[in-house]
Amino acid sequence: AYNCLIHFYKRKPKSSLELKSVRSVSAMGSRRRVSCGQELAHVPELQNIITSSSAESGFDFITIPIVNPRYEREFHPDKLASKRQGPVTRSDLLLASSDWSSLVVGRISPTIDVDSKVPHIRANSEARLAEELRYASHLGMPAVMVQLHGLNHTNLARIVSNHIAKGASFQVWVQVPVTPPDTAKYEEEGQEDEVEDSTDTWDWWNRFRLVSNSNSKINLCLGIVENVPTENQILRWVGEPIKTVSVPTSMFLTNKKGYPVLSRHHQGLIRRFIHLDIQVIVRGPPRSHHMKFYQQYLDHLYQQVPVGDPLQQFARGYEDYLQCPLQPLMDNLESQTYEVFEKDPVKYSEYQAAIQAALTDLVPEEDREERVLVLMVVGAGRGPLVRAALNASEKSGRKIRVFAVEKNPNAVITLQQQQIELWGDQVTVISSDMREWDPPVEDYADILVSELLGSFGDNELSPECLDGAQKFLKPGGISIPYSYTSFIGPLQSSKLYNEVRSCKDETKHPLANFETPYVVHFQNRFELAPPQSLFTFTHPNRANVIDNTRYEELSFNIIADSVLHGFGGYFECLLYKKIMISILPATHSPGMFSWFPILFPLKEPVQLKKDDKVKLHFWRNVTKKHVWYEWALSEPLAVPIHNPNGRSYEIGL
Question: Given 543, 571, 596, 611, which residue has the most CB atoms within 10 angstroms?
């Protein structure tokens, strides 16, 4: 039933312009060169400019005005300019169509003001904008840039989004300064108190984005200015769909060797966005330097960014890619899935440490030669935990007998082969569902080991499986893991919201895409408040009546003006005593990549202000055949229950 069981199988296609930003420069790692563009104010010789920008200066593309800004255009028949003869702009014959579509980004004329309160200026601007958008479509440009100067761009957002809705192939890059312009220094002395504070530029973008219905083809071009934003402002921008960062040559300093460099603050700012695979645009005059030195410096800045730990390297190319969670009880995993999980450099070393510590605690030094413990690996897969147990036995000097219990008949073949070739009589392979197997009392386990956790801890039904398997755990026996807790926190991510919105399935409920949790390696997102603990499960569960249904109400205090698009889910797991594995950002096990977080989306984005309280209600429901989650908000506004009765998503028992 699930076509995207695991994320390693598919990558999303990228546009021709985006492909330039992911070129690898080293077979050893994943360092990439910068994809850099040059903004040009005027282009008298387009072919020569492209040659000089690309071949001589190393730029990958240029941005140019679609129409010369000095070319006066009028559309009212009473205006003389409306009768002007000749072409409005350059011919498409100057370049091959492949060059127009990969090397040239168009810019809308800055004098266009479709939100003017003067009717004839607004009407003329609307006609000019439509003309330029049509010509950009005709040329096949990959992107068109528009610039925001304040909050009042509602008509611009309407026209642009309507043009995209008609089938325009290009993206729209909305130019917004990263912080408000500092107008105080231009005021006369003594007038500062009379000047109102500048509007937060994020509000400019947010209003434009909302009016255009968060269209996935409308993205950000973030302009670097003199002032560096605060940490929360940077994190909020990271949660937006940034395609490019625009750096003026005036921001560069000259180092001791005479080359252009950025200040440490601006270097740090650009580095915060590099992991989003941004492209960088250099704008402004050369300022006594050859333009190639700007490109070379930005490329050097990219090369200084660390390749990353095993998790970052493993996840390269799969960031913000939605995947359906695994259902290993309903579906038998494939060999490739097992193979990738087994490459995790952290998980199995932590399991081995936990097993070794448990063996040492259970068997005193004086009994190590005579006493043989029974260790059961339930859900053994292809045997990585069996190998970890045998290694722990050898290192601790404690003897064990191992039962490897696995329901997947294909994985059982691999276990049986290893038992014959490597493990011998020390390991017994059991082909059975752990909940149904009934061993004799003498084979009951001293230690029960499992790796049944999902991205949300319990979402692959570890509680139900281990509750069924604990019947053959001896009194006083040890379960590894013995406890795990799910965590959840509010997120802003326009990119993920658009990904979810585009996942409609005609065979399911109309809201199924917003009522399904997705496994995602989060990148382009902003955490609106720290995640909080949700549900905790402990094993063995010795309750007289075992009930794995849960309900919790959590309250989050929002740290900045923002938009709530959903909730991110994580887990912490205690294997034995203080030995832990975690995907919670604050305690993440370094280098562990077996699990990505999980996303619980909201159907409608919720506008939030700093210090707003978000109240989340979350349920885990259980029947004899299925488990499912439901979630809703009651503050700051009431949001309907998502996934009622598991109508869109449920996990089969």
Answer: 571
